[in-house]
Amino acid sequence: MKRLCLVLISALFILHCTGESVLELIHPTDGELVTVPFTFIWSSVENSIDYRIEVDTDIAFSSPVIATDVSDTTYDAANLDTLMYYWRVAAYDENDGLGGFTDPDSFRVTGSAYPRNFLTAITVLSSAHSIDITPNGNEVWVNHNGQYDTMVYVISTVTNQVTHQIPVSGSDGAELQITQDGQFAYFCAGSDHAGIVEINTSTHTHTRTFNFYVYSWPEGPDGYGIATTQNNSDIFAAHAAADYGYGCITKFNVSTGALIDSTHLPWICDVALNHAGTKLYAVSESDDIFYEIDPATLTVTNQMSVLSNPRYLAITADDDYAFISHLNSEMIYVVDLNAFSLVTTIDATSGHGHLRFTPDQKYLYALNHATRTMNIIDVSNPSSPFIVENLNLGGSYGALKSICFSPDGMRAYIVASQGNIVVLTR
To answer: How many helices (H) and strands (E) does the chain have?
Structure first.
């Protein structure tokens, strides 16, 4: 801060003495260590209409990684590797003539503010679908979709190796969740062994399946979402249905495995409990509705229209906002849950699926089912979110299906449908 003040004072002194403004690089300078994303800052020049910024690993700027014109005296950088860089700025005058560049200054990128750098890819079965991580961060669990009597894979986060393959009767595995206490993993399965699958995380065994036939077609819960209470007393499951217009939400007692209650709502794709456990939220893909529900009685307490084919929900840790992705829209909705009204939308790549916050709640990852890309969204102010990067994993991984993060937020584990878990690090 002292150095920054001295730079500004020096610039003002030169301006006072010469009567001319001088272009100065303000941040970052002198080999400063930065983590992406960050903002380049420089001083303004009188009568300048635009500026040109160049960034390169070579002080001769032979192949700039950034070379662009901007109208402001700042530029946001979100996609730089962990290297030493040089940067410089030149100003355009009122006749669109480009003046001389500043002397270059340097900085070093030490890492990113969120996981974005490829670390490894772990091979699992094809049609990998959903993923979660144990509360202690030691194991990642992944299920698979479209396979009969399939396996749930358990992966060590220390070695990035598969340590267990757990046989599970039933196919079409949906969202997998590990309980807050880390004792069990749950997900909905279809086919002839329909119901909610329970796996003991200590013994790595399939302990039981909660079977039921209500509202949905005989295969049971075929929605994508599942929600467990904080104390693991109840489970809520989303049901789509064989036909639009049918579907429901079911509530089970974990201790007995018995169905407690159900409510008919059309084509429910996802459900999510707020962290206080006082509200249940759901999206209907057929009717394009976002529901607020009393989890005690399963009665709808509020609802609002959203865009076509809402698919996934993410609730902020303070329970104030919901983010809703849409399969057939470029927009992600942001809803104020206290006012139950739309706050803003995020204009993103179409076909968004799974949503998940980083543990520090500063970023939201929005996966794209149709491509190998994901939008990383700054949600530090949930009412004014913005995309900081569209990250392309490359390779032949297939559609990106689900994501989870290590408890410290240093790594991201992403399910790709061709049978890989892609691991990103800071």
So the answer is: 1, 36
Tens digit of each residue's pLDDT (9 = 90 or more) over 150-195: 789 999 999 999 999 998 876 567 889 999 999 999 988 765 556 7
> Strands of 289-294's sheet, edge to edge?
268-273, 280-284, 289-294, 299-305
Q: E strands of 241-397, at which residues? A: 248-253, 259-264, 268-273, 280-284, 289-294, 299-305, 310-315, 321-326, 331-336, 341-347, 352-357, 363-368, 373-378, 386-392
Q: What percent of the chain has pLDDT over 90?
A: 62
CA–CA separation, 353 and 327 (whole Å): 6
Q: Which amino acid would we find at residue 285?
A: E
CATH of domain 117-425: 2.130.10.10
- Using a cut of 0.85, tell me whether the model's pTM lies above it: no
What superfamily would CATH give domain 2-112? Immunoglobulins (2.60.40.10)
Q: Which conformational region is residue 136 in: left (phi greater than 0), alpha (psi within -120 to 50 degrees), or beta?
A: alpha
Q: What is the location of CATH 2.60.40.10 in the chain?
A: 2-112
Contacts for 139 with CB less than 8 Å, ≥ 6 apart: 133, 154, 155, 156, 157, 163, 201
